[in-house]
């Protein structure tokens, strides 16, 4: 996610348009202007949603790096901690650990 952020921050709109396409860029940009960090945080809590796409938009819109890192790291830390906790207990329950 941080690599996508950095590339979009550095290379701007042409880079993002090559990655996602012009129509999708406008669609996500309008969604981002309305909901912004709330969507990014929600997507961070659901492991299979494309947070990397929103990382491109954070870089394109020049979001502060500290804000981006907090929005990226915190939800993923919570999700993967919960998954590891339950994975360990389920593994012990079925006799793998």
Q: What labels describe this entry?
A:
97 residues, mainly alpha, 5 helices, 85% helix, elongated
Explain the overall architecture.
The protein is mostly helical. The chain has one domain (2-94). The protein is 85% helix and 0% strand. It has five helices and no strands. It has helices at 2-20, 22-35, 37-45, 51-60, 65-94.
Give the count of helical stretches.
5
For the termini, the CA-CA separation is 32 Å
In angstroms, what is the radius of gyration? 16 Å
Share of helix among residues?
Answer: over 70%
- Pattern of helices and strands: HHHHH
Number of strands: 0
Q: Which class of secondary structure composition applies to the elements?
A: mainly alpha
Can you tell me the overall shape? elongated
Question: How much is the average pLDDT?
Answer: 83
β-strand amount: under 5%
* Number of domains as seen in the coordinates: 1
Low-confidence stretches: none
Write a brief caption for the model.
This protein is mainly alpha-helical and 97 residues long. It has helices at 2-20, 22-35, 37-45, 51-60, 65-94.
List the helices and strands and how they pair.
Layout: H1 2-20, H2 22-35, H3 37-45, H4 51-60, H5 65-94
């Amino acid at each position: 996610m941080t690599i996508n952020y950095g590339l979009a921050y550095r290379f701007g709109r042409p880079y993002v348009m090559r990655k996602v396409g012009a129509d999708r860029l406008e669609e996500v940009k309008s969604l981002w202007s309305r909901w912004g960090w709330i969507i990014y945080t929600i997507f961070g809590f659901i492991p299979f949603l494309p947070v990397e796409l929103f990382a491109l938009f954070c870089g394109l819109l020049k979001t502060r790096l500290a804000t981006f890192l907090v929005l990226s790291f915190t939800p993923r830390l919570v999700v993967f901690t919960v998954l590891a906790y339950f994975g360990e207990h389920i593994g012990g329950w079925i006799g793998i650990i």
